[in-house]
Sequence to fold (374 residues):
Amino acid sequence: MNNIVLFQELLCDNGKKVGIATLNSERSLNALSGEMIEALYPQLSSWHDDEDIAAVFLQGAGEKAFCAGGDIVNLYNAMKSHTGDYSPEVEEYFTKEYQLDYLIHTFNKPFIVWGTGIVMGGGLGMMVGASHKVVTETSRIAMPEISIGLYPDVGGTWFLNRMPDQCGLFLGLTGASINAADAKYTGMADFFILAEKKQALLDGLKTVNWGNTVALNHDKLSNLMHDLELVSNVKLPVSHVRAQSALIEKVMDFDNIADIVNAIVSAEVEDPWFNKAQKSLKHGSAVSGHLVYRQLNTGKNMSLVDCFRMELNLSVKCGQFGEFAEGVRALLIDKDYSPKWKYSSIADVDPAIIDWFFESKWQADEHPLAQLGS
Fold:
């Protein structure tokens, strides 16, 4: 599909332009397909190098979702055609996805993501890399990979480790859904603007006196968004993460994954949000739980580039191990919602299996992301 991503250039009053990219697959909630990535990457790279482009605005078609995640149905088909073995298609997809995410993280101009509606998985990977991350009253954000036998990739090693009070590990383990207030509290969003103000934002971008100094352009854009926040004049919803921060800190205060998981699922609290998080963890993949815990501990002091390199290795191995395919089967293919995980509890998982996931598949110079950031 040639129109899987729509591109346009908004001419501003002073002659500069804003590049606008729209993920154009409402039916799939703008799930990030390989075709989308292949369309986005060269266009964003071109805008990156184009002196006439002052900023970039990335959005999803429709109101329901910015992007509900990666195109895991296609990944499932690739995994099933290589059951129990390495899948080149899985490696290719994640390699290109992480290159796109890294480009957004390191973009040399203001980069806006309009994170309205559902923002999950691969969608969040794009949003957190933006310099100006916008949420609205409908934003619903999550990294729910534990429910499909994966782990929070797309830079999760980087951004979950930068959240306050261990809530990054909590969100990674439980896949808990968060709102706009949570997103601002955890650093996953910068601005809260009402969904109905999107056109006002686009109109405002035309009037900004864009210059050639990147830092000043960032400031001008931030001022515009701050003004729109004030105009919105709507109180943010209650932040679940902030409201339960003391409990989250308490249940995370252990030095091993088994005790942390036990503390979370056994916590006695009457809070629908926390209770739903407990349920997700209980029914999630025990292998994924171990991967999240070691991923975040291993990556605490890693550079962004090294986080993506480690994650590519983990993702390729997830495609080979079988847990990921089983999770997708249960949730999205057969929809029986009863995944047959290989281990029934965190305590049952063989540590040697987790060691295998973290053993690199490639020599350093052979890594598909060896040149990332160079």
The domain at 5-366 is CATH 3.90.226.10 (2-enoyl-CoA Hydratase; Chain A, domain 1). The longest strand covers residues 53-60. Strands lie at 5-11, 17-23, 53-60, 65-67, 111-115, 118-120, 132-135, 140-142, 191-192.
